Amino acid sequence: MLRRRELLNAAFATAAVGLPLAYDHEAVAATFEAAAAGIGGTVVGAEEVAVVRRLTEGFRSADDKLGGGHGLTTVTAYLTDTVTPMLRARFPSGAVRRDAFGAAAQLACLVGWKHHDLGREGAAQQYYLLGYQLACESDPAGHGAWLMRAMTHQALDLGHPGSCAQLAEEALRRASGKVDRQTEALLLVTCARAYGSVGERAKAAGALVAAEDALSDTRDPVPSYAAASGPVAATVASHTGRTLTAMKDYAAAERHYRTAMLARTPGTYQRGHALTMVNLGKSVAAQHRHEEAVGLWNRSLDFMDGVVSDRGRKEIRAIRTTAAGYGRRGVPGAANLAVRATELLRAQA
In terms of C-beta density within 10 A (0-12 exposed, 13-18 middle, 19 or more buried), how is residue 329 classed? Predict the structure, then answer.
């Protein structure tokens, strides 16, 4: 799993989306424990694990602002050369061991996310699977479910909904009652997206209502692995918008995209803000408010400047194509938008 060149050359496998459903955590945990029994020497304590978490948060923050292509080599090297060997050490307690594996799982998930953002989907999938295995050693119910969520969203983004509903349902089942209600809301909206992608409108609507209900319960803190995705309200609103878009309810999707944008602190989550604004423009355009869509896409380009993201480049290319068509129809501002998108793509080449 940690041979970087092999991971980079890996192709996304639709059949692998459902692998967590058959993963035997107990058998793997027993293997880990047997291997650890004969280990002597280095002891890793809570301080070392805290350093991993602080550095991971720094890498994640940079990723939000500058995209998946920023610092990928450094982050990957840190995971493979420092953090993974750390897991072979001895720990002063079971709690520290679980914390170490949880920290490693978050870092592996970030590496997977960065590859996904760059369009390297096979590598992303492999790092998500690695993150899932590590998370199961830390918290198979909550953190393990979270990595199942990541794999579900990747498959949905790529248009492979096959095993997504089953995977999302199982993630929710495992975590229900064992995580805070806001994390449960994030898992519920993942179910909604999976249902919406295959046209199960009633199930999708039910999951969205349940997610909104869970989101309102803020009594318990959100675990760090879930908090890393950004403000929960913004994430739920954004994925609600995407679910409603798949269901062709563009007016409702627009409302949720606007909620997502308002739920993020200005100046943070630059890439997420840009992509949400792109989606907002699409929902507005679908309602035939083309001039307004042009204005929104212009604003989205403000956030994409300097961001190294294949997802971002794909959206810029789509904006350029749509704007060119709008320009031929005489939509105000469309011609200038097409030119601006072309210049931005050239600058990012």
Answer: exposed
Residue positions counted in the chain = 349
pLDDT(184) > 90: yes
What lies within 8 Å, CB to CB, of 233 at 6+ separation is 215, 259, 260, 263
Q: Given this model, what pLDDT does residue 29 score?
A: 67
Distance of CA 151 to the CA centre of its chain: 9
Please state, in angstroms and rounded to a whole number, the distance separating the CA atoms of residues 282 and 248.
Answer: 11
Q: Two tokens at 127? A: 């790092």
Question: What share of residues in the chain are helix, strand, coil (percent, to 5)?
Answer: 75, 0, 25
**Cα 165–Cα 167–Cα 170 angle in degrees, nearest 5:** 105
62 pLDDT higher than 80: yes
Amino acid type, 120:
R
Encoded amino acid at 89, one letter: A
Mean pLDDT of 190-203: 96
Amino acid, res. 77: A
> For residue 177, is pLDDT > 90?
yes
Sketch the domain layout of the chain as residue ranges.
1-138, 155-268, 276-344
How far apart, in whole angstroms, are the C-alpha atoms of residue 136 and residue 147? Answer: 9
Looking at residue 349, what is its pLDDT?
79
- The SS3 of residue 90 is strand
